[in-house]
Amino acid sequence: MTSSARPVHPTTRTRGPVGLHILPSSMTVLAICAGLTSIKYALDGQVHVAMALIAAAAILDGLDGRVARILDAESRMGAEIDSLADAVDFGVAPAIVIYVSLLSTQPAGWIVVLLYAVCVVLRLARFNALLDDATLPAYTREFFVGMPAPAGAITLMGLLAAKLQFGDGWWTSQWFTCAWVVGTSMLLVSRIPMRKMHAVSVPPHLAAVLLAVLALVAAAAFLFPYVLVLVLIVAYLCTIPFSVRSQRWVAAHPEAWEHAPRERRAARREIRRSQPGRRPLGIRRPSGQSMARLRLRKPGR
Fold first, then answer.
1. Which helix (H) or strand (E) holds 145?
2. Euclidean distance between the first and the last CA atom of the chain, given in angstroms as a whole number
3. Which of 36, 55, 57, 102 is least surrounded, with the fewest CB atoms within 10 Å of its CB?
4. Is the CB of residue 109 less than 8 Å from the CB of residue 99?
């Protein structure tokens, strides 16, 4: 028998993919290293490096799950490592960085950062519990319950971004810093629905606009990184009312969850038009003109 006709052992075929299966967990471990190293740089007074490392941990956290799904490498151990990494990267590390940089001389500083770290852990525990709850409607997969932990860490870093960009001011005062940390902590453990980014669809005719915006964001990340952080935080917070409105509509019309986003938007428009007492679009009463001047009679006359 020649070598070309020799049967291939099953382990030979899977040797390559098996090596790639550790890639998601490796990215998670790198995220843990980035989060812990940010504490070291914060203690050394290099706050900008600490911020960059926490941002890198957030990027790695967003990629490891997608890489695991692409490689079909999802596992229970990987999920547990990811949850523990989130607690370190977005709970412990940002809390210590903020405390060392802004609140170390404040009596209430340790209390508020301790509250933030605990809220991150509680938020992650609730997230894991909801994953195992098979009684939840299908549309809940499109929404987070409360602010995600990476978004909470970036929101907390907005305090440092404001200080590095504008210097000291009311935004670095004790009352504002503590209020910001407490407010972020409350958003983490709240029941406010927040839309998942991968569930947001972009119409095909807006794809070019989106790519142009991404190019501007990439340029701003090098030229005005701290302003970009602040803009992203404000933009994310402004999406909360829209997420609440979208979640309430889907909860009232669960049958529309299986429809495409374009069909869902069309259904919303039809429902709004069919509401009683709603004035049709494009028909408005001219300003400053009464019913008599418009020659309209009241009913019964």
1. strand 143-145
2. 105
3. 36
4. yes
Give residues with Cβ within 8 angstroms of 173, minimum separation 6: none
pLDDT in tens, 37-84: 999 999 999 999 999 999 999 999 888 888 888 887 777 787 888 888
Where is 194: in which H helix or E strand? strand 193-195
Contact 66, 197 (CB under 8 A): no
Q: How confident is the model at residue 204 (pLDDT cuts 50, 70, 90)?
A: confident
**The CATH number of domain 21-196+204-263 is 1.20.120.1760:** yes
CA 64 to CA 150: how far, in whole Å?
A: 13
CA dihedral 127, 129, 134, 135 (to 10 degrees): -90
Strand partners, 193: 145
Q: State both tokens at 116.
A: 């933030």
∠ CA(36), CA(37), CA(39), 5° rounding? 70
Query: Residue 3: its pLDDT value, please?
Result: 44
What average pLDDT is seen over the chain? 80
Report the DSSP pairing between strands 143-145 and 193-195: antiparallel
Closest listed residue to residue 55, CA positions, set 34, 30, 29: 34
Query: What tokens does 113 get?
Result: 């950062």
Q: Give residue 282's region: left, alpha or beta (phi > 0; psi -120 to 50).
A: left
